[in-house]
Design brief:
The complex is a heterodimer. By secondary structure, chain A is of the alpha+beta class. Chain A is built from 7 helices and 10 strands. Classes of the chains: A alpha+beta, B mainly beta.
Chain lengths: 270, 163
């Protein structure tokens, strides 16, 4: 990374002699020492730090180089240089552009699949996505929505079947329209457990449920959301707050309040 | 309380992080003629024009040096509205260009506080804090601009778009 002839780090754009946007003649004056960059600095984190052989004694104190004052000082020195050509101008553009889109509300959701249905939950209620593991059945209580208990980080949590809550038919067979669903992958290895939580009356209200596939977290603009048609016959529709199109599939965003209320009702009543 | 620190003339100054809207690279400023030299001009900030003050020029004789660490800080400016109508302009914003705007401080471990000096020529200087071996001078943002200049600059500001 270090150019041996000059000692300057080569990965950073070098300073520029003529600044393209003088704010005022006085502002153009830059101390020569600030242009050079951290030339005299040995990049110790590459030699004896976390990206080196970890022999630095300070690591016992700071654990990671990013907590060490030496690196903080180097970072400070890195910023002590002129901006690369066009950098500040590009930020002018960003400010204007983001200004035009500023009132676009965005929700962040986790998209997952249950049998043939693609669903999404707001990430605000999501705690964890974890590998599928054994569910311990509870005598006389399991069979409905409650599947049993699972061990999540040493704690037993209620495991439920959202499929049964929403009334989604389990179809282990081939999808109805395989061509239309490009992101679907049928593989038991991809099954995951989702852990969701909301504050309840007696401490946090936590649920675990298995899903067939997790597609990831995406951000959806409010403008692209569609209302759930009132005529939808599926009973699960009452748990959805909106629909949106994503990579050619229709995804239903679950209303977290109604969804968790529904789980509570179903499990406590049986 | 968290403080955002920066320097002017080699001295460290700070404001409370709660009044910071955003810290940006020091983007080019559109100059406005016949303003005091420490008002650099205006900048298009997300669809509105905000006035920009060079802190180094306000506090010392020199402009801020142009480096990556010299940044544009956008703050809430507590402007009380036009004196003639008394109508407050909600969310008046001011840009401040200052050097070495790269770190924050926690004020939990303040050692000593030197109370605000009431200086006629520099009403924008607040209390002086001593923490972690550093001496930091707090800035009073609303006094950075003289009242007359502030009402001139902000009276023209449109209502922020409702969101």
């Amino acid at each position: 990374m270090i150019d041996a002839s000059s000692g300057h780090p080569t990965r950073h754009p070098t300073s520029l002699p003529g600044d393209p946007s003088p704010r005022s003649p006085e502002a153009l004056e830059v101390l020569p020492s600030t242009v050079a960059g951290p030339a005299d600095r040995e990049e110790c984190w590459r030699r004896i730090g976390v990206t080196g052989d970890r022999s630095c004694r300070e690591l016992e104190t700071y654990i990671h180089c990013r907590n060490c004052p030496v690196m903080a000082e180097a970072a400070r020195a890195f910023f002590d240089r002129l901006a690369p050509i066009g950098y500040l101008e590009s930020w002018s553009g960003i400010l204007e552009e983001r200004g035009a889109r500023r009132d676009l509300e965005v929700v962040s959701v986790l998209v997952f699949r249950l049998a043939d249905e693609w669903l999404a939950l707001p990430t605000t209620v999501l705690v964890e996505v974890t590998k599928e593991r054994r569910c311990h059945r509870v005598p006389h209580r399991t069979g409905g929505v409650l599947e049993g208990l699972v061990n999540i980080r040493g704690q037993l949590q209620l495991c439920v079947s959202v499929q049964r809550l929403l009334g989604i038919e389990g179809s282990a067979s081939a999808p109805k329209a395989p061509a239309a669903d490009s992101i679907r992958v049928d593989d038991p290895e991809l099954r995951r457990l989702l852990v969701v939580e909301r504050p309840g009356r007696h401490g946090p209200d936590r649920w675990v449920f298995p899903v067939d596939q997790v597609a990831g977290v995406i951000r959806v603009g409010q403008a692209t959301l569609r209302a759930v048609p009132a005529t939808v016959s599926q009973s699960g529709a009452r748990f959805c707050q909106a629909l949106f199109d994503w990579q050619g599939v229709m995804v239903g965003i679950l209303d977290e309040t109604r969804f968790l209320d529904g789980l509570n009702d179903q499990v406590r009543s049986t | 309380m968290q403080l955002l620190t920066f320097t002017a003339g080699g001295q460290t100054y700070a404001i409370e992080a709660t009044c910071v809207v955003e810290v940006l690279p020091a983007v080019p400023v559109r100059a406005v003629p016949r303003l005091p030299d420490y008002v650099l001009g205006v900048v298009d900030y997300r669809g509105r024009l905000i006035p920009v003050v060079d802190l180094a020029k306000r506090l010392t004789d020199d402009f801020s040096a142009r480096r990556l660490s010299t940044r544009l800080l956008v703050v809430e400016f507590p402007w009380r509205g036009r004196p003639d109508t008394g109508q407050p302009t909600p969310k008046a914003r001011l840009g401040i260009v200052a050097e070495n705007m790269v770190s924050t401080l926690r004020s939990d471990d303040v050692d000593t506080v030197f109370p605000t000096m009431h200086l006629e020529n520099s009403p924008y200087l607040g209390k002086i804090l001593r923490l972690n071996g550093q001496t930091v001078h707090m800035l009073i943002v609303e006094n950075l601009l003289p009242a007359e200049l502030a009402s001139g600059l902000f009276a023209a500001a449109p209502e922020p778009p409702s969101s």
